[in-house]
Amino acid sequence: MHERVRSGDRTAFAEIFDEHARVVYAHAIRTTGDWALAEDVMSLTFLEAWRLRDKLREEVRSVRAWLLGIATNVMRNIARAARRHRDAMSRLPPPEALPDFSDAIVHQMADAERLAAAARALKRLKRTEREVFTLVVWSDLGYAAAAEALGIPVGTVRSRLSRAREKLRRLVEEELAPNARGVEPRTYSGHISQREGTSVRPSHRRSAR
């Protein structure tokens, strides 16, 4: 399979996409907390994988780890671009005041709100801890595979994951506290499975205010 992909066999690459696209999408959505951005990350990951297909040699033991490593780099680049954009926007003069359209927003997707709360807690971790946590815990990579994806020693994966778990427990409690943000708690109808085989598409049910 590796040799076929390296030689430019699109059918072989399509097989890799079919097998691993859901895992890459789940990793992206759990990391970013944004459904649309996760789709962009997935597309960019496979475009980059096709561009780098010559690197898919026999020493790449896990295609999934290889793809998740690419996805992690894609998200790093997106985050850097977002920071540059925010910095550029902060230097612009303030915009004119606009009418308040908040009353027109009458529904929110419950799943999206729950995911956003989890993503806020995750983003409060250091980037290195966040990457290890999402790969090992949410994407079910073993320590060795995560080390391969990130290009770091296995021992570093273990230590970063230990710190990430400890911090995340505290941060999630803060984010999920009913009155932490001055709002009433909501009832949620869905969750994101930590199993790679579970669907990660958003529910279309909406919660009534």
From TrEMBL:
The keyword Transcription applies. Residues 182-209 are annotated as: Disordered. It comes from the Bacteria. Keywords: Sigma factor, Transcription, Transcription regulation. The keyword Transcription applies. Residues 190-201 have a biased composition (Polar residues). Residues 118-168 form the RNA polymerase sigma factor 70 region 4 type domain. Residues 17-84 form the RNA polymerase sigma-70 region domain. InterPro entries: RNA_pol_sigma-70-like, RNA_pol_sigma-70_dom, RNA_pol_sigma70_r2, RNA_pol_sigma70_r4_t2, RNA_pol_sigma_r2, RNA_pol_sigma_r3/r4-like, WH-like_DNA-bd_sf. Belongs to the sigma-70 factor family. ECF subfamily. This is RNA polymerase sigma factor. It comes from Streptomyces althioticus subsp. attaecolombicae. The lineage of its organism: Bacteria, Bacillati, Actinomycetota, Actinomycetes, Kitasatosporales.
